[in-house]
Design goal:
It is found in: Mitochondrion inner membrane. 59% of the residues lie in helices and 0% in strands. It is mainly alpha-helical.
């Protein structure tokens, strides 16, 4: 049996077609609480995928460190070009 279609509100961004993008964006919660909730969900997904694993490695922590290095370089780039 075919699965019933997923409502547009419950679709992930990668599953939304280009013609549905404006409708999908209009259904998002852009209040401060909604934005904080989105960041919290993203952090929890990252933590559970890379940090909280049974047999972990340095992958998750090295990505955070690499991100920190890139952000620090961007912040100080204007001082380096003078």
């Amino acid at each position: 049996m075919a699965q019933p279609p997923v409502p547009l509100k419950d679709m992930k961004l990668l599953d939304v077609k280009l013609g549905q993008l404006s409708t999908w964006l209009a259904m998002r919660d852009f209040t401060p609480g909604g934005i904080v909730g989105a960041f919290r969900r993203g952090y929890e997904r990252y933590y559970n995928k890379y940090i909280n694993v049974k047999k972990g490695g340095l992958g998750g922590i090295s990505m955070v460190l690499a991100g920190y290095v890139v952000v620090s370089y961007i912040w100080s780039y204007s001082h380096l070009s003078k």
